[in-house]
Amino acid sequence: MKTTKGLFFIITMIVLGFTSYAQEGKRPLSGNSYGVINIDEYVKLLPENHSGIIKDIRLIDREYAGVRIFRLYDEVPMHYHAKSDAYLYILNGKAEFYVDDKGPVVAGKGDLLFWGKGTAHGNGKILEGPLDVLVFDAIARDPSDVIWVDPSTQKKFLNN
């Protein structure tokens, strides 16, 4: 059930409102309030080898949310984000992850990791590579921020 909720969140973030751009000469089908991005196409653009720790492609860059895809090549030191929460969905690979003073926790393909702003995190050894990650950087949305286009559908939605 947790995986289903995580995937629902990811799909919702992609499908609902954004203005997007991408590096590497590709551009997702997009508009000011919607778009479709084929994640597999962007995974193919990530180089097998890289001299740095990370190579990322920014897919969506909005004031209140951003979506990136990245490949990790080495360990990432502990760090935190002062202004946004992070949600990482592992597309391929497996690695050790640390959050605050906990760890290591092993996460791999199909796992969703998350931490709130100000929470220190990083990753240790890459156990299986390549380690490809879909990342959502977001400011929290209040649950009351759901405006039903057809108010009669609210009851049906809430009863499911």
UniProtKB/TrEMBL annotation:
Keywords tagged on the record: Isomerase
Domain of life: Bacteria
Pfam families: Cupin_2
UniProt signal peptide: none
InterPro entries the UniProt entry points to: Cupin_2, RmlC-like_jellyroll, RmlC_Cupin_sf
Isomerase is among the record's keywords: yes
Molecular function GO terms recorded: isomerase activity
Positions of the Cupin type-2 domain: 75-134
Entry protein name: Mannose-6-phosphate isomerase-like protein (Cupin superfamily)
Organism (species): Arenibacter echinorum
